[in-house]
Amino acid sequence: MKKPKxxxxxxxxxxxxxxxxxxxxxxxxxxxxxxxxxxxDPQLAKVFPNADAVNGALRGLVEIAKSSTRAASRTTKSSKxxxx
Length: 84
Known about the structure:
mainly alpha
């Protein structure tokens, strides 16, 4: 089955002036800032084969970070009371 030929020209009822000024990449910065796509190194991609593996590892890391900061803050408070 042959593909139909692409026509790069506008149809007769349209004129180029009707579209105003066109700017390439007009919204590229906005899209880049709002994007949540992260590219990981190929070595890490072998360890984390899909999004679920990455999300699970990050959630575990967040829990470890929360528990370690809680323990440190408790130790600091109790040591202040003991010193007083």
